[in-house]
């Protein structure tokens, strides 16, 4: 995992972003979450502690974190965006049944980027890879 919550907060402060308790809670939740939550899931988890916080507040802060480079937005078709605070090079396995996303490590596919650039002339800036199937829970035979 990259930066700690404190390091991320310090960097945000240095760029003039005021640190509110809500921002701290959202960033902490994301950095400690392995589930790649949606904004709604973050809202449901944090609203008991922050009853005045709206879904719009969550979205606005997520946008701020994405723009600052602390959080990656994962978009898959029409589904809600999911957010990932793990910015290390890693890939995702996605369950087609329940939508769970699980990280897995694999050596970065830099040769694929180089080949894509060679074949297309694109200045490749990155890639993402997902594998699809059923998670262990969904694949388990039902009695």
Outline of this structure?
It is built from six helices and five strands; from the N terminus they run ααααββββαβα.
Write structural notes for this entry.
With 143 residues, this protein is an alpha+beta fold. The protein is built from six helices and five strands; from the N terminus they run ααααββββαβα. It has helices at residues 5-14, 21-31, 39-46, 55-68, 110-120, 136-139; strands at 72-74, 82-84, 91-95, 101-104, 130-133. The strands form two sheets. It has a three-stranded mixed β-sheet, with no helix packed on it. Strands 1-2 form a two-stranded antiparallel ribbon. A hairpin with a 5-residue loop joins strand 3 and strand 4 (101-104). Helix 2 (21-31) packs across helix 4 and helix 3 packs across helix 4. The longest helix is centred in the middle third of the chain and has 14 residues, at 55-68. It is globular and about 50 Å long. The protein starts with a helix and ends with a helix. 13% of the residues are buried. The mean pLDDT is 88. It comes from Paenibacillus solisilvae. Belongs to the Fur family. This is Peroxide-responsive transcriptional repressor PerR.
Secondary structure topology:
Layout: H1 5-14, H2 21-31, H3 39-46, H4 55-68, E1 72-74, E2 82-84, E3 91-95, E4 101-104, H5 110-120, E5 130-133, H6 136-139
Helix pairs in contact: 2-4, 3-4
């Amino acid at each position: 995992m990259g930066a700690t919550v404190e390091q991320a907060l310090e960097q945000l402060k240095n760029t003039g972003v005021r640190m509110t308790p809500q921002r701290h809670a959202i960033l902490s939740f994301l950095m400690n979450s392995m589930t790649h939550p949606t904004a709604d899931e973050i809202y449901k988890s944090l609203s008991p502690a922050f009853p005045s916080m709206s879904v719009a507040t969550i979205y606005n802060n997520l946008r701020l974190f994405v723009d600052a480079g602390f959080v990656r937005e994962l978009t898959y078709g029409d589904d809600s965006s999911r957010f990932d605070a793990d910015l290390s090079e890693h890939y995702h396995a996605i369950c087609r049944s329940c939508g769970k996303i699980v990280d897995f490590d694999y050596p970065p596919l830099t040769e694929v980027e180089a080949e894509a650039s060679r074949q297309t002339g694109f200045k490749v800036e990155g890639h993402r890879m997902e594998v699809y199937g059923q998670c262990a829970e969904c694949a388990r035979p039902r009695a």
